[in-house]
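Marked as duplicate of an earlier ticket. Keeping the data here for the record.
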Amino acid sequence: MQENERKLQQAEGGKEQTSDNLNTHLEESPNSEPIVSEDALPEQNENTTSETAESKETKSEATSSNPPEPNKESDDAIDEIDESNAEDAEDAENEKRHYIPMLDYHSMPLENLVGELQRLVKNEKVQAIGRHVSGIKYEFDQKFQEFIEHKKEEFVANGGNEIDFRYNSVAKRQFNEVYSEYREKRDHYYKQLEQNLKNNLHNRLQIIEELKGLIDVEEDINTTYNNFKDLQERWKNAGPIPRTNYNDVWRTYHHHMEIFYDFLHLNRELRDLDFKHNLEEKQKLVDRAEALANEPDLSKAFRELQTLHKIWKEDIGPVDKEHREEIWERFSNATKAMHQRRQEHFMELEKDFEKNLEKKLEIIAKIANIAEHVAENHRGIQKQIKDVEELRDAFFKAGKVPQKVNEETWSHFKEAVRKFNRSKNSFYKGQKKDQQTNLEKKKELLDRALALKDSDDYAMATPEMKRIQNEWKKIGHVPRKYSDKIWNEFKEACNHYFDRLHSDKNDAQKEEYENFDKKNACLERLKEFQLSGDKKKDLEAIKEFLSEWKQYGRIPYNKKHINGKFNKIVDALLKKLGVGRHESELLKYGNKVQELAKTEDNYAIGNERVFIKRKIDESKSEIRQLENNLQFFSGDSEDNPLVKEVIKNIDRQKEALQTWKEKLKKLNILEHKLNKEAEEEEDSSEEE
C-alpha cells in the first residue's frame, strides 16, 4: 500500500514540475505538427516484437478465461490508458518523457534547433526523447532544405553553374554530429533493453507457470498461500517486458490469480481477507480517480489516472464476485469522464489550429502578392526582402495547423517564397552589366582618391575628396567579388587623407581650446559670484565678467554651448538687479562695442553694421506682416486668443527693433569717435 502511495506521489509531483506542458498524447495526437520520421524512433529486433511460442500460448489462455475486468468491449478510454501503460511497461524510465516539454520547434530558427537537440542529448535519458528528437529533425530538415534552395538560387542568379554549387553550413555539421551521438546512445540503449525485456518476459511467464502449479501441490494451505504471496512479490519486481506482450501477459497472470482464489475456497478465511484488502485498495483508487474530475491541470490528471490503472492492474489482486462488477464500473466511468475531458480539450486545440491555419494562409497570400509585384529597383526589392523575412518569421510563429493540411500549407509557403526569390534573383542577374559599369566608375574615383591622399593643398583637396565621396555614394552596386576589396581600398585612402587633415586642424585649434579653458574658468567664477546689494558695484562687477569673456576670442565650434550658459547666468543676475531685457541687451552690447573699439578693426565694425541693419530690416518686415495679419481680425474683440497672440508678437518685435536701433546708435558713436580720433591724429602730424 505504501508503494502504491509512492507511485501516486511521483505521478503528481513529476507533473507539477511541467504543468505548462500539455500532456502525453499531445505529442502523439494527429494534430501535432510535424509528421515524425521513423528513423528517429527505436529500432527493435524482429525477435523482440514477434510473439514467442510461450506468449502465444499465454494469449490463448488469457482470451479463453474471459476475465471480468476490463470488459472485452471496445472502450476508447480504457484502450488509451492501456496503450500508454503498455508503452511505459517496456521501460520503467520511459514515462519520464512525459515530463519533458515538447517545445514549439516549428517557430525555432536552425541554430536554436541545434541548441535544443544538444541540450536534450546531453541532459535527458535517450529513451525519453525520441519524439522530441524526431520533431526537431523534421523541422531542421525542412528549414535547411528551404535555406539551401534559396542559396542555390542566389548562386545561379550570380552567374554560377548549378552543378558547381556547394555550401558549407556550420549548423548542419553541428546538427549531424549531435544527431549521430543520439543514434549511437539510442542504439546502445535499445540493444541492452532488448535482452533485458526478453529475460523479464521469460521470468514473468515462469511465475505464471508456478502460479498455475500451486493448485496441484498437495501441501498445507497456509504454505501454499505464502508461496502465492511470494510469487506476487516476485511479479512486482520482475521488471519491464515488451509492450506487445504487456496486456496479454497481465491478463493471463490475472486469470490464474482468480483461479487460485477460487482454489482458496478450501480456506475461505484467507481468501476473504485478501478480497477485503483488495476491495479497500481499489475503492481508494476509485475515489482518487473520481476526484480527478475536479483537477484543473488536465495533463496532471491524466498522468495520475494512468498511474492508478497501473496500480489496479499490477499491484492489486481481484475482489469477490459480489463487488467485482460494481467497483470496476465506477473506475471505468471515472476513466471515461477523463477521456471525454481530453477529447473536448483536443477539439479546442483543433479550433486553435484552424485559427493558426487562417493566419498562415493570410501570410502566404501576402508573400504571393509580393512575388507577383516584385519591384524594379534595388531599394524597392530590398524593402520587399525585409517584408518577406518578417512574413516568414510570422509564419513560423503562427503556431501549428491541422495535421491533414500541414504538408500542403508548408508546400504553398515554400512555393510563394521561392517564386519571390526567383523574381528577385532574375532582377539582380539583369543588373550584372550595370554593376560592371559601376565598378569601372568606382575604380576611377579610387584612383583620384589615391592621388589626393597625401596632398598638402587642403583648400583644393578637401572639397575634392568630399565630392569624390558623394559621387561614390551615388554609384550603384558592383559585383560582389569586388565589392569588399574596392570599398576597403577607397575607405583607407579617404581615412588617410582626413586623418592628416584633422591632425593639422587639431594643431591649429590648440589656441581655441586654450580660450575655451579660460572661458570655462571664468564661467565657474561667475557661478560662485554673489550680489552684494550695491547695484552700481554689482553692475561694474558684471561688466568686468563681460569684458573678460569677450577678450578670450574664438573657441572650438563644438564647445560654443558655453556661451549660452554664460549669458543665461548674466541675464539672471541682471534681472535680480532690476535691469530689464532691453537694458540688459544694450549693456552686453556696450561691452562688445568696447572690444571693437580696442581692436580698431574697421572691417569688423563694417560687418557688425551690416549685421545690425539686416536685423532691423527683418524686424520691420516681421512687424508689417503681423500688422497685416491683424487686419483679418478687425471685427474681433481683443479678448480673442489669436488676436492677443498677434498683438503680443508685434510688441515683442517692436521691442527687438528698438534694441537693434540702440545697438546701431552705439556703433555709430563708436565709428564717429574712431573717425574723429583718426582726423585729430592726421592734423597733428601735419602741424608737426
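See parent ticket for discussion. Confidence is low (pLDDT under 50) at residues 13-74.
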